[in-house]
Amino acid sequence: MEWETHRPSAPGTPSSMSSGNSGGSSARTEKTPNFKQLSPSPSVAALSKIPDAELRMKGPDELVRLLRRVEMDYKSLLGEHGNVVKDVNRRLQIFVLETRGLKENAHKLQEDNQELRDLCCFLDDDRQKGRKLAREWQRFGRYTASVMRSEVRR
């Protein structure tokens, strides 16, 4: 039977690969790092506080310089956001693989459980047959003893 060789965490499951031991610890028990809040850069925050009238008074070169700085800040934020999304997707993939492994283990355990139940039923049936046979032999022994007694009396 396979249940005799079953381990809590099979070598191919992500939980055993990520935790470094086969004690069944899950990636869910690891502390998930808090991601930095994506917020506007100081230059964008300062620019948003400038009134529209003051922006209209600035020259085209100054506005272009401000625009380029804001563009660079948003490109940086988009790159950081992309890294966060990649990390979240990687973790999600690990959890999906772990879930798949756990489902496979649960299925194997259910099969082993059913096999053990069937074996218990077989053994119980066999025990019942043994008890019935013992009762029949006991009756036969009593009958034989009574026949012998009656023969001896004659």
From TrEMBL:
Keyword Coiled coil: yes
Keywords, alphabetical: Cell junction, Coiled coil
The UniProt record lists the keyword Coiled coil: yes
UniProt xrefs under InterPro entries: CCDC85
Localization terms from the record: Cell junction, Adherens junction
Region ranges (Disordered): 1-44
Domain of life assignment: Eukaryota
Protein name as annotated: Coiled-coil domain-containing protein 85C-like
Native organism: Elysia marginata
